Amino acid sequence: MHLRAILKRFKIVTSSINAFYRNALVSPTNIKLYNMSLVVVGSMAFDAIETPFGKSDKIIGGAGTYIAWCASNYTAVKQISVVGGDFPELELTALTIRNVDLEGVQIKKDEKTFFWSGRYHLDMNSRDTLETQLNVLENFQPVVPESYQDCEFLMLGNLAPSVQRSVIEQLKNRPKLIIMDTMNFWMEIAMDDLKKTISMVDVLMVNDSEARQLSGEFSLVKAAKSILQMGPKYLIIKKGEHGALLFHENKVFFAPALPLEEVFDPTGAGDTFAGGFIGHIAKTKDISFNNMKTAIIVGSAMASFCVEKFGTQRLREINKADIDSRIAEFVQLVNFNIDLV
Ligand code: AMP
């Protein structure tokens, strides 16, 4: 090809990448300031979802995928996961363009990607798992690349607790903050293992029914007390459209969810919440209780985008202006002054 034609093509590619970064919260230059030390572990998957409003074919999902799409608005991400040969290369490229490092993602050419399918009830707050095909996840042994050893913040997305633990154990230095998400599936089949991993983390995220299942307590305040005795210093209880609670010692903070006219598909909302939470913490490098309150608002705002369309679709469309105005809506929602009389 003629040199001028090559340069022209190169210019088109770089200008579209630059346009992408103009819309994102982080640019390739300011990412360097953040030390590139957020490591995310989680499933990358195919999902099939049924809601009262529609049904999706096999679409891209997975806890790690949602976390990466969301957190990469705030900082660079180093991803640990596994996919099969059937996982589209384009999806991996899309993440790379967003500064998600995939060195820690194993590609098992002859195997199939993890598959999950679920059906939501009319209230959209509860769902049934219809099918879980572990496939590549069945024998997944994560390997932490040497270049991930600078990990300052570790986000353990939903995966087998032994896999989550293996990542903690492979890190030579303990990260500044370890956050863990999990689900009822692991409580049912691997409770002892789960408790072992929970005892090693700083922040645990679960939803309200999982908090009850894990603690054996119905009251969420009692459940929180009992879970905080298992090891984590902070506990976040997600309550879907009813917001989220943050517990630490004797303190508690509550953030509502944005009242939305339509919730199209809640899949991944919890993971997106986690991505916003850890993205904000990793960007600010501040692990105080006060900053965690802000991080919960950021997580809630990001989750409110996720539910607006099927799968990761909405997360791919939003830019910094969308995020800023959504966070401003949150501030309006919760800001009030009281004059005591
Ligand atoms: P969420 O709606 O935030 O609970 O997360 C939904 C995502 O979790 C889906 O995209 C699934 O692919 C993924 N997922 C469901 N079950 C599991 C599991 N047992 N292990 C890992 N990821 C899972």
What does this structure look like?
- The structure is a single chain.
- The chain is of the alpha/beta class.
- Helix content is 40%, strand content 22%.
- The chain is built from 13 helices and 14 strands.
- The strands form two sheets. A nine-stranded mixed sheet has the order 6-5-1-9-10-11-12-13-14, with helices on both faces. Strands 2, 3, 4, 7 and 8 form a five-stranded mixed sheet that branches.
- Helix 5 (161-170) links the parallel strand 9 and strand 10 (177-181).
- Helix 11 (289-306) crosses helix 13 (320-334).
- It is globular.
- The protein starts with a helix and ends in a 7-residue tail after the last helix.
- It binds adenosine monophosphate (AMP).
Using the CA coordinates, give the radius of gyration: 20 Å
Query: Are there runs of 5+ residues with pLDDT below 50, and where?
Result: 1-34
User: Helix- and strand-based class?
Assistant: alpha/beta
The order of strands across the largest sheet is 6-5-1-9-10-11-12-13-14
Q: Key terms for this structure?
A:
341 residues, 13 helices, single chain, 22% strand, 9-stranded mixed β-sheet, 40% helix, alpha/beta, 14 strands, binds adenosine monophosphate, globular
Topology of this structure?
Blueprint: H1 3-23, H2 28-31, E1 38-41, E2 45-51, E3 54-55, E4 59-61, H3 63-71, E5 77-84, H4 89-97, E6 100-108, E7 114-120, E8 127-133, E9 153-156, H5 161-170, E10 177-181, H6 184-189, H7 191-198, E11 203-207, H8 208-215, H9 220-228, E12 234-238, E13 244-248, E14 251-255, H10 269-284, H11 289-306, H12 313-317, H13 320-334
The chain binds adenosine monophosphate.
Adenosine monophosphate is lined by residues 43, 45, 47, 61-63, 116, 132, 158-159, 185, 267-271.
